[in-house]
């Protein structure tokens, strides 16, 4: 007796896309932002703000456009990245509008409402986000432009040197009524170069020539790349007096270098060279010296130096906020001055939402970084891994240097807090960054295609006695 069994090919099981989860989280994010906007209006004027409906519809439209783009062009992408970015952007708009209502701001001759401009820049950012998903079908295409991206990034970093300094730093390009901060876009482009370069050179960079005090020292000829990047970051700090971009630029390279080579010695060398460069520049550059002096004793320069007085007022704002804060619209962080809605907007968060609110904001930023790192771990190609970790590392470093400067942990850098601070270049560039992470995530999470059925499969028989 025999049993004849036909063997068939089993297709791949389709994984859930999590798009409905993303849509629900987007609705929750928009609701929180609208609630914050309404709460500010009730605290300041005792009634719901007249623009609340327009604000809610505008933010909902932006979130909906972003969601439809992800649902159409990145079906399997991470479901948390878009809602987290929308939440930060929406609540940031509410805080900027809250500072626009300050009587101290409105009394200034140079006052111009910033919330409407920020909403417009957010729309441009979401449009760029959609363009990234639409045009970038596969993130590995970017690898072709490794050295072109290096040239473009250096061009963007050098260009501000030929424009007048703004508040002591040459980080802006002024084109009539518009200003652009090219460093925000350079961080994405330089991450593409680092990813392509390290993917090819990582084996050579991982080799060690000798062991010293528990560390594997790299070979002398392999120190060249890190020395070049260190020199470029120092030159940026010298000629543009831009401490934030220098830290971001060099820190991102060291993080990506460590991930590519898995050598702890590169981190040690990177930290030592970064500290040596910063100390060396601070010894002769007046603008950097003022930042360091204001950091060491912010109250000593009260009434003498703007940076020192701003940090002192920021620390007092955090202190007056306590654990739960004074309430939305009921703080006095507008005393900080013109930087209250850009560099020091975290002081408003700390005063009006307290320590609990600050921890919530930092947790949201941490979740974005965590999802980016998870995307890097899930990526199937080395270029995607390095690009995802580079973009996540750049985002994390920017959050750290801004929050650390405003809280007095490190010297003030002058960078903007991603998504919540006023700044068109920052919000547009960070939406593009999230778009690239979503593209990499979609490629990493997308199930492998089922194998094509063989015409001989139906003819295959297994005979068992």
What structural class results from the helix and strand content?
mainly alpha
Q: Largest sheet, order of strands side by side?
A: 1-6
Total helical segments: 15
In angstroms, what is the radius of gyration? 25 Å
What do these coordinates show?
It is a single chain. The protein is mainly α. The protein has one domain. It has 15 helices and six strands. The strands form three sheets. It has a two-stranded antiparallel ribbon. A hairpin with a 2-residue loop joins strand 2 and strand 3. Helix 2 packs parallel to helix 5, helix 7 runs parallel beside helix 9 and helix 13 runs parallel beside helix 15. The longest helix has 34 residues. It is globular. The chain starts with a strand and ends with a strand. The N terminus and C terminus are likely disordered.
Gist of the model:
The chain has helices at residues 19-45, 52-73, 81-100, 103-106, 115-135, 146-158, 182-206, 224-240, 243-261, 264-282, 286-296, 306-321, 345-378, 382-407, 424-445; strands at 3-6, 173-175, 178-180, 208-212, 215-218, 461-464.
Structural topology:
Layout: E1 3-6, H1 19-45, H2 52-73, H3 81-100, H4 103-106, H5 115-135, H6 146-158, E2 173-175, E3 178-180, H7 182-206, E4 208-212, E5 215-218, H8 224-240, H9 243-261, H10 264-282, H11 286-296, H12 306-321, H13 345-378, H14 382-407, H15 424-445, E6 461-464
Antiparallel strand pairs: 1-6, 2-3, 4-5
GO cellular component, one term: plasma membrane
InterPro entries: FtsW/RodA
Membrane topology: Multi-pass membrane protein
């Amino acid at each position: 007796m025999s049993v004849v069994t036909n063997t068939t090919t089993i297709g791949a099981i389709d994984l859930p896309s999590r798009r409905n989860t993303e849509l629900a989280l987007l609705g929750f994010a928009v609701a929180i932002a609208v609630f914050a906007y309404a709460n500010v209006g009730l605290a300041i004027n005792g009634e719901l703000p007249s623009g609340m409906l327009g604000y809610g519809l505008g933010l909902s439209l932006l979130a909906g456009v972003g969601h439809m783009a992800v649902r159409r062009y990145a079906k399997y992408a991470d479901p948390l990245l878009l809602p987290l970015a929308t939440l930060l952007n929406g609540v940031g708009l509410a805080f900027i509008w809250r500072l626009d209502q300050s009587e101290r701001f409105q009394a200034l001759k140079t006052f111009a409402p910033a919330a409407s401009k920020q909403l417009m820049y957010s729309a441009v950012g979401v449009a760029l986000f959609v363009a990234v998903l639409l045009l970038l079908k596969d993130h590995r295409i970017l690898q072709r432009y490794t050295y072109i991206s290096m040239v473009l990034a250096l061009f963007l970093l050098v260009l501000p040197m030929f424009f007048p300094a703004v508040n002591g730093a040459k980080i802006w390009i002024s084109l009539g009524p518009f200003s652009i901060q090219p460093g925000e876009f350079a961080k994405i482009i330089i991450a593409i170069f680092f990813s392509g370069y390290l993917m090819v050179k990582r084996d050579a960079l991982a080799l060690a020539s000798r062991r010293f005090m528990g560390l594997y020292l790299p070979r002398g000829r392999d120190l060249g790349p890190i020395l070049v990047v260190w020199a470029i970051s120092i030159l940026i700090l010298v000629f543009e007096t831009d401490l934030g971009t220098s830290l971001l630029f060099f820190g991102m390279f060291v993080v990506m270098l460590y991930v590519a080579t898995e050598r702890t010695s590169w981190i040690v060398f990177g930290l030592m060279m970064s500290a040596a460069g910063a100390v060396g520049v601070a010894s002769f550059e007046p603008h950097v010296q003022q930042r360091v002096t204001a950091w060491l004793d912010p109250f000593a320069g009260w009434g003498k130096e703007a940076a020192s007085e701003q940090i002192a007022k920021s620390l007092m704002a955090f202190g007056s906020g306590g654990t739960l804060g004074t309430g939305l619209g009921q703080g006095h962080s507008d005393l900080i001055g013109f930087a209250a809605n850009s560099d020091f907007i975290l002081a408003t968060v700390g005063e009006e939402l307290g320590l609990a609110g600050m921890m919530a904001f930092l947790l949201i930023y941490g979740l974005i970084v965590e999802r980016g790192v998870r995307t890097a771990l899930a990526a199937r190609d080395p270029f995607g891994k390095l690009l995802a970790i580079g973009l996540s590392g750049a985002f994390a470093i920017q959050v750290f240097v801004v929050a650390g400067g405003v809280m007095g942990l490190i010297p003030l850098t002058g960078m903007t807090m991603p998504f919540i601070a006023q700044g068109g270049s920052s919000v547009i560039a960070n939406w593009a960054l999230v778009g690239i992470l979503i593209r990499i995530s979609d490629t990493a999470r997308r199930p492998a295609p089922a194998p094509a059925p063989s015409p001989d499969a139906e003819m295959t028989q297994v005979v068992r006695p």
